[in-house]
Amino acid sequence: MIHFTCDCCKRVIDLDEEVRFVVRMEVFAAADAGETDADDERDYLEEIEEMLSLAEDSDESLNDDVYQQVRFDLCSDCRQKFVRDPLGRTTPVHLGFSNN
Ligand SMILES: [Zn+2]
After folding, report:
1. Could you count the other beta carbons within 10 Å of the beta carbon of residue 6?
2. Which of 19, 63, 78, 92 could bond to 8 as cystine, CB 3.0-4.6 Å?
3. pLDDT digits (tens, 9 = 90+) for 36-59
4. Cα(19) to centroid of ligand 1, in Å?
5. Residues with CB under 5 A from ligand 1 (ion)
6. 40 class by beta-carbon count within 10 Å (0-12 exposed, 13-18 middle, 19+ buried)
């Protein structure tokens, strides 16, 4: 039997009693800096995929700064926390602006 562990709280997820949630995140460098030609609709995702396949072919790991994909298993508790605060910002968000 396969056991899944929550990547956040390290608790074993009992699939008989609860649902396992999967978080998939893609982080990649937006290649839109300095682009001024609005008609130039280059498919950057395609380019990234191309780079990835090239990296696979040449057996060279792509720079993590350019593209990263991560996957987490979460229990329902941690999934709730994640959805509320995906970036893990611990400081509460203050509504309104300071009057400086
Ligand atoms: Zn958890």
Report:
1. 20
2. 78
3. 555 556 677 888 788 777 666 655
4. 11
5. 6, 8-9, 75, 78
6. exposed
